[in-house]
């Protein structure tokens, strides 16, 4: 599937983005179970034949959207860090937490986490993406001698981070991304002196 994606033309990529955007907006408006392929193609202003060039059905589109956003969450969190370099948490500023800005820029998608009738299994994706990132690529230097690199602790961090982000979404993104990033950094500073990206 990944190889096929690389071969798509810019126009095909744009068409797929429009289908995903239309799908996301429709779920926000009427709920996942009430969105049909007809709804998607009408909103995106394409015909059904174009939809079926890229997707087998609504579930195929759903899986691609989920996978793409899951990977983007992980990629965005890593972009500014050099593997092997140690980072002091005191040197971090609100621009150091790029995941928050990414979520804000993709509010339409992340608002799906707040809906009762949403993409099946979506609720698990944000904490799982954050956990995999922390578990596979971050080694923390603790304040004190406690172990903050166990899988259990990183799972706790992932769910706590996801919870704060979703609380921000639920409150209508009243705080700026910089404010939310600053809060998350202060929490991290309370437990870690620094970290290294593997």
Strands side by side in the biggest sheet: 1-3-2
Percent of residues in β-strands: 5-15%
Compute the number of helices. 10
CATH class category label? Mainly Alpha
Number of strands: 3
How many strands, what sense, and barrel or not for the largest sheet?
3 strands, antiparallel
Question: CATH homologous superfamily - what is it?
Answer: Tetracycline Repressor, domain 2
Helix content: 55-70%
Explain this structure to me?
The protein is mainly alpha-helical and 198 residues long. The protein has one domain (2-197): Tetracycline Repressor, domain 2 (Orthogonal Bundle), CATH 1.10.357. 63% of the residues lie in helices and 7% in strands. The protein has helices spanning 2-6, 10-30, 37-44, 48-54, 58-78, 98-105, 107-110, 122-137, 151-170, 177-191, and strands at 86-88, 138-142, 192-197. Strands 1-3-2 form a 3-stranded antiparallel sheet. Helix 2 (10-30) crosses helix 3 (37-44), helix 5 (58-78) runs antiparallel to helix 6 (98-105) and helix 6 (98-105) runs antiparallel to helix 10 (177-191). The longest helix is centred in the N-terminal third of the chain and has 21 residues, at 10-30. The radius of gyration is 19 Å and the shape is elongated. Residues 1-5 have low confidence and may be disordered.
